[in-house]
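Hi C.,

You asked whether I'd gotten around to modeling the 90-residue construct. I have! Everything is below, sequence then structure, no commentary in between.
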Amino acid sequence: MSRTVECTKMGEALEGLDFAPFPGELGQRVYDNVSKEAWKQWLAQQTILINEYRLSSLDPKAQSFLKEEMQKFLFSGEEIEMPKEFNKDS
């Protein structure tokens, strides 16, 4: 049986993740408050950021940048920092 969460990104009760996506407090916060659909949207955005900015998942600065952008995307409703090729205004 799937579990339901009140998704902070989508603003409604939706199917939640099956497990925390990473360890620690932030991973638990994502598990408790983010739907599968919102997580899927974040992974697509993250892929764009990694590819366009040529980020390495081993680089601590890249990890920090992605974590900040993820929190903006999932919890604050802020626009994330997309490469200029992906800006709607360009």
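If it helps when you're writing up: The chain has three helices and two strands.

Thanks,
B.
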